[in-house]
Amino acid sequence: MITKRWSVDNSVDKEDSYSQFSQAADLLKNNEVVAFPTETVYGLGGNAKNDEAVRKIFEAKGRPSDNPLIIHIAEKGQLDAFVAEIPQNALVLMERFWPGPLTLIFNLKDGVLSHYATAGLSTVAVRMPDHPVALELLKKTGLPIAAPSANRSGKPSPTTADHVWEDLNGRIAGLVDGGPTGVGVESTVVDCTGEVPVILRPGGITREQLTEVVGEVIVDPALADESQAPKSPGMKYRHYAPDAPLYLVEGTKEDIQHFVDDKKREGLSVGVLTTLENKEFYCADYVYACGQREKLETVASSLYEALRFFNTTDADIIFGEMFPGEGVGHAIMNRLMKAAGHRVISR
To answer: Domain range for residue 134?
Structure first.
């Protein structure tokens, strides 16, 4: 398959941009799959109402079909077609955080969406992305678009069009290049089907931000207990992992250097995932600083770029720093723990 690629300026008022949007929208309306940027990561979109289109998403990603997808919309009014009801908490959260990196879980209205998009569940995950390219493309299709991250399943999520190209060129019909994304980690997923909202996946909107708006918010126990089955799209299987094994180190930078030295004596090529504050401290074959520890949002925005960096090296093993679990740090640690396969070591 030939993958068509368009470069679109984020200022969508240019005539050539509209022409490119129309080409990409036509592919989506013809049940092909197209990758496009959002404010979190690049998504791989397909018509959520069509079985064939949704199957193409799973096929391109190599993603198990029992893993539900997030539905992307451009207008709140689109919910009426496939959502059974909109609870009060959801209305409040939509008013405050849409468009934005927040996915809400609703009870599903049968007979509209492909059952492949929802993995046969009675609920559906929906969000409205806060990105001009994504919103314009969604408006031009007029469709609910199922869109997981646009990467091969298990690999770090893509935050640039080049990441998508590396993973999916020749496997999808099109790629809309709207430049690098901003937030860097995926949307927060909140289940609004019960009396109290439940965070199923931490992301760009923090628990603290949510509680300011709706009061009590619960965190899904499955996020802390690996033995429990997660309920959120994109959380069921191993994700984000670089090619070399990643170990998170509970301790100081001196502790990390101790492990680095041990592995170098064994003749291994060693990488370290750190921040700008500590980058110059480490003596390793590859050291990558993903943002500033004092500004965790910068760590979130460059985390997947960092994980992908190590795939361009001959590193045999990677040691990573850990981060506070509050605010956006909750999302960072969630992704790092999954990337590391929950391997945490200490001296």
So the answer is: 4-223
Among candidate residues 223, 256, 284, the one where a domain is terminated: 223
What tokens does 40 get?
Answer: 């979190």
Q: Do the beta carbons of residue 94 and residue 76 sit within 8 Å?
A: yes
Domain limit, last residue, from 223, 256, 282: 223
Helix/strand/coil for 257: helix
User: In this structure, are 161 and 285 located in the same domain?
Assistant: no
Residue 10: how many other CB atoms lie within 10 Å:
11
Is residue 22 part of an annotated ligand binding site?
Answer: no
Q: Is residue 320 part of a domain?
A: yes
Give the pLDDT score at 234. 52
Asked whether residue 305 is assigned to any structural domain, the reply reads yes
Give the contacts of 13 (CB within 8 A, at least 6 positions apart): none
Whether 17 has a binding-site annotation, put simply, is no
pTM of this structure: 0.92
| Residue 342 Rama label (left phi>0; alpha psi -120 to 50; beta) | left
CB-CB contact of 20 with 160 (8 Å):
no
Is 286 marked as a binding-site residue? no
107 is in an annotated binding site: no
CA distance 246 to 241: 8
pLDDT in tens, 137-185: 999 999 999 999 999 988 899 999 999 999 999 999 999 999 999 999 9
- Asked whether residue 144 is domain-assigned, the answer is yes
Q: Which is it for strands 317-320 and 246-249: parallel, antiparallel or unpaired?
A: parallel
User: Is residue 237 domain-resident?
Assistant: no
Known binding residue 96? Answer is no
The answer on 336 and 299 residing in a single domain is yes
123 annotated to a ligand binding site: yes
Q: What is the DSSP letter of 158?
A: P
Beta strands (DSSP E) in 202-260 are 218-219, 246-249
| CATH of residue 326 | 3.40.50.11030
Name the band, by pLDDT with cuts 50, 70 and 90, for residue 230. very low
